[in-house]
Amino acid sequence: MQRWRGLEDIPEGWGRSVVTIGSYDGVHRGHQLIIGKAVERARELGIPAVVVTFDPHPSEVVRPGTHPPLLAPHHRRAELMTELGVDAVLVLPFTKEFSKLAPADFVVKVLVDKLHAQLVVEGPNFRFGHRAAGTVATLAELGTTYDYTVEVVDLYERGTAGGGEPFSSTLARRLVAEGDVAGAMEVLGRPHRVEGVVVRGAQRGRELGFPTANVETLPHTAIPADGVYAGYLQVGGEAMPAAISVGTNPQFDGKVRTVEAYAIDRVGLDLYGLHAGVDFVAYLRGQEKFATLDALLERMAVDVKLARELIAEAGRGPVA
Length: 320
Known about the structure:
- The chain is α/β, with parallel strands linked by helices.
- Helix content is about 30%, strand content about 25%.
- It is built from 10 helices and 14 strands.
- Strands 1-4-3-2-5-6 form a 6-stranded parallel beta sheet, sandwiched between helices. Strands 9-10-13-12-11-14 form a 6-stranded antiparallel beta barrel.
- Helix 1 (about 30-45) links the parallel strand 2 and strand 3.
- It starts with a strand and ends in a 6-residue tail after the last helix.
């Protein structure tokens, strides 16, 4: 898959393409429907499928200080889009100047002059251009002038028949923030992942017999609520079942919020300096301060046992 940053990276002579545009944070199941339809139509037409996205998140430029927690960094989104069959991802630097483009100017500058869109695939709530003035109706109307068509894909509902909420990044972020990682997994179609470099912490886990990988998370990461979870520690393409702790470590009166993962039944791991991912599969309990260190150790042993059993019962193989 080709990855471009900015319009100037698009190869000269790029032909017609099927395009879909959006922040696509998390590449959740609603996004997968839209992107999947774009790829399907691109294969039918015999042309490439291109995803256009933005960095930073538009809200941070339009309303500084409102950057939402991110469900996936751009490199992770590109990996997920590759799995869906996308041929190219264009990341547009979102600036004040860019935010002021009128809908028609955005269409000409991006879709017509550079990507030569033949078909644009979007969700029903897609908005674009200055002050989000453009809608899918605007996009379709401009298509009659600029020789492309528009196809709208409805998003599935979450929950039982007759109820639930549409799949959305906002919903996934809320579920993650609440610690409902099982609900977030339903929306995302996979476990929520937190990424970063493994750094040295207080090393208390090693002293207690449960050495953990302390993952220094990327800026603006959506981190689950404080608590203990079952999941996976991902390093170098290997998915290791793990018990995960998120919080300030109240047992030792910690002040800094951390994400730490204990790789179950693994010994002698040296992960310092490596990039790691932590996948959250199930919530086990909240953070607690125990009366004694022995009580903490007993509870940690129970947490590891529960995590091991939950992952085994789920019958999950390595998570990509």
